[in-house]
Amino acid sequence: MLFHDLTMSLVLPFLLCLPLFFFFFSLKKKRRVDKELVGTGTGLLPPGPPKLLFIGNFHQFTTTSSLHRRLHHLSRRYGPLMPLQLGSRPTVVVSSARIAKEIMKTHDLEFAGRPSFVCQQKLEGIEEDMHY
């Protein structure tokens, strides 16, 4: 009986801590992958504002200023081409006419097959991928 109680007193905390270990391990791995994707010249994406785990960059749009003013403020800080994570969707924001023209003229095939948002289709009633 004493051995059983001792075993349960050691096994139960271990079993409770195991999911926490896997959660923090996966979080650390995700941050490492994010750092590889966003870099200072070597990454695939330009540098952007820091994001939170589940909500992405939504916390940066909770101020009282309007959306276009907040995006303008972020573009002055991070440049005319910046990645944002809107929930689980990665998004690239272009705030320069020159870069937008280059994307639509020379890189149109890379952006042609990207998925559209369901809420966008319901609000507009049409499927458009670019907004001006």
TrEMBL record:
One Pfam family cited in the UniProt record for this chain: p450
Compartment(s) of residence: Membrane
Keywords in alphabetical order: Heme, Iron, Membrane, Metal-binding, Monooxygenase, Oxidoreductase, Transmembrane, Transmembrane helix
Main subcellular location: membrane
SUPFAM superfamilies: Cytochrome P450
Cofactor: heme
Topology class, membrane: Single-pass membrane protein
GO cellular component: a single term: membrane
Single GO term (MF): iron ion binding
Ranges that cross the membrane: 6-27
InterPro entries reported for this sequence: Cyt_P450, Cyt_P450_E_grp-I, Cyt_P450_sf
Signal peptide stretch: none
Family: Belongs to the cytochrome P450 family.
Protein name (database record): Uncharacterized protein
Organism of this sequence: Nelumbo nucifera (Sacred lotus)
